[in-house]
Amino acid sequence: MLRIEGLHTFYGSIEALRGVDLEVSSGEIVALIGANGAGKSTLLMTICGQPHAARGQVRFGDDDITRWPTHEIIAAGIAQAPEGRRIFARMSVLENLLMGATSADPQHFESDLTRVFTLFPILKERRDQRGGTLSGGEQQMLAIARALMSRPRLLLLDEPSLGLAPMVVKQIFRVIQEINEQQRVTVFLVEQNAFHALRLAHRGYVLVNGRVTMTGTGRELLANPDIRAAYLEGGH
Amino acid sequence: MSGARLFGPAWLTEGVKEALLQALVALILAVPLIGLKTVQEPGGLGLQTRWPAVAIAVACVFVGRLLLVIARHIWPPRPKAAHSPVVAARIRRFVRLLGPATIAFALLLPFLPFADRYVLDVSILVLTYVMLGWGLNIVVGLAGLLDLGYVAFYAVGAYSYALFAANFGLSFWACLPIAGALAATFGILLGFPVLRLRGDYLAIVTLGFGEMIRVILINWSSLTNGPRGISGIPRPDFFGVPFNPSPAPDASAFHTLFGIAYSPIQRVIFLYYLILVLALLTNLFTLRIRKLPVGRAWEALREDEIACRSLGINPTNTKLTAFAIGAMFAGFAGSFFATRQGFISPESFTFLESAIILAIVVLGGMGSQVGIVIAAIVLIGGPELVRELEEYRMLAFGGLMVLIMVWRPRGLLAFREPTIRLADFDRTARARSEPAATVP
To answer: A87: which chain B residues are within 8 Å (Cβ-Cβ)?
Structure first.
C-alpha cells in the first residue's frame, strides 16, 4: 500500500533521512522505532509532503505521491495524527472532528461520527467542550479520532503515547488495534515506546540516524538482544 | 528583627516601604516630566524649574499608594471565584439578547427624540468603524492573521468610488461592487507575498503595505490628485432620486417623491441607514461563513497551521480568501466614507486608522461580533462623550483603554460560541427516522 524507496530529506544542509526503504502492506500495523533525532517524524512528514523529499520515491497504492501537495496526499486517503496532538484548542471537540472530515464526503459525516464516538465514548461526553480543556489522553484520542474522520486507508500516528500515563497508553494502543482489526485501516506508527509499539505491530523497522538498520516482525524485534539493549532496558 | 517593627504592625511597615519605592519612581519620572519646563526667552529657549509641583506629585503618589495599602488591609481582595456555569450561562443569554436589542435600537434611532444631526453623525461614524471592525475581524479574529495595514483596503475602496464616480459618472450602487472587487484584488495582492509569514513578521509586512498604498496615493498625482485629495465626490442619492432642496420643475427629489417637506437631515438619515445595512450585511456574512467549511478552516488555521495541513486543508487558499473577503468589506466601507465626506485625501488613511480598527477588534475580544460593537462605541463614541474635557480628552481615553485591559485582558467578550452542536445532528437524524418509527 505504501512503498518508500531510497528516500532522502534535508532540512537546509542537514540530511535527516539518508536513503530510507520501507513498505507497509494493506491491513498491517507497522511500527517505526528509534531514538530522538533519528528521523522518525521527518519520515512521516515527508510522506505527507512537508517537506518534500530531495531524492527517492513515496508510492501510495499505484500513485507516486512524492511531489504531490499535502492536501492532495490527504485527499488520496492518508491521514496523520501529528506529533504533539495539535488539536484546535479554542474549538469544540465536535468542531475538531468536523475539521478532520474536511477531505471526506460530507454524506458519511454522521456515520463516521458515530464510529469515532463508539471508539472513544469519552469524546461523545465532551463533544461541546473546548479542545484545550481536555486532558492529555483525551486530546490524543481526539487527534486520532480527528484523523479517522477523513476515512483514511492509511493512518499515520506520530508518537501517540507521548507524555501519557501508562494506563492511558494501554487504552490508546488497544484502540489502535481495534481501528486496525475492525475498521480495516492500515496503521503506520512512529514510537519511542518500543515495547508497546512492537507488541502491537505486525512488523517493525528501526531507524538510526536517518537509515533503517533493522526490520522484522514485532515479536522478532522485541526478542532481539540489540533492540532490548538500545530501546527497552531500564524503562519497562 | 526588632528593626522591622519601627512603627505599627508589619503590614504597615511593608506598605510604607512599598509607598516609598513608588514615590522614588514617581520622583525619577517627575523631575524631567513636571520639574522642567521650556519657556520662550528673548535669547531663545530657557528652562524653568517647578520643584513644588514635583513635590506635590511625589507626595500624591506616596499618600495614594499608602491609602491603597491600607484599603487592601481593611478590605482584603476576595480570592477570584471560578466562573460558575450558571453565571456564564446567564451572561451568554444576556449577550444573545443584546444583539437583537441593539439592532432594534439602531433601526429606531433616527426617529428617537434626542436624535439630532450631531447624534446621527456620531452614530454614522461609529457604524463605519463597526463595519471596519467586523471586516478586520474576519482576517484577525477568525483567520488569526495580524493585519496592521487594513486601512489600505479602506483607501482603495474610497478612491475607487471617488475616481469612478468622478471620471465615468457611475452611481454609488454601481461603484460599490467595483470598489469591493478592487479592494479584494488588493487583498490577494497583499496575501500572496505574505503566505509564509506569521505573527510579528506578517504584522510588519502588512504595516508596510498600508504605508505603501498611502504613499502611492500621495505621489501618483495624475490619478489621485496627490495630497490635495479629491473633492466634489457625488453625494449619495435615494436610488437615483437626489436629495435636492429645489429640483427642476420636471425632475423629482426625495421630498417631492414622498410628498414631505425638504429637510437636510433626510440625507443624513439615509446615510445612517445605508451604513447600518452595509454593516449588518457584513455581520450576517460573517455569522453565516463561520458555519461553512471555509469559515471553519479560517478558525482552524488560527488555532494551528500544521494541524490544518495534516488534515488536508489548503492553507494558501484559506489565507487568500480571508484576506480577500476582509479587504472587500473595507472596500465597501471606503466607498461609503467617500460618498459621505464628499472629499478624500491620503491623510484620512494613516496608520492610526489601522491601529484604531485593530484596537476595536482586540478590545472587543477577538472574534466576538457583539464585542466589536461595544468596543467601537467605546473607542469612537467615547472620545465624543468626553469632549468637554478638551485637552485631557486623550488622557481620559487612554485611561479607559488601560482599565478595559486590566478588567478584561482578553477583550470585552472573549468567549467563543461553537459553530455546531450535536443537537443539530440529532434533530436531522430524528427527522429521518420518524417515518420509520410510525411503521408498527
So the answer is: 304, 307
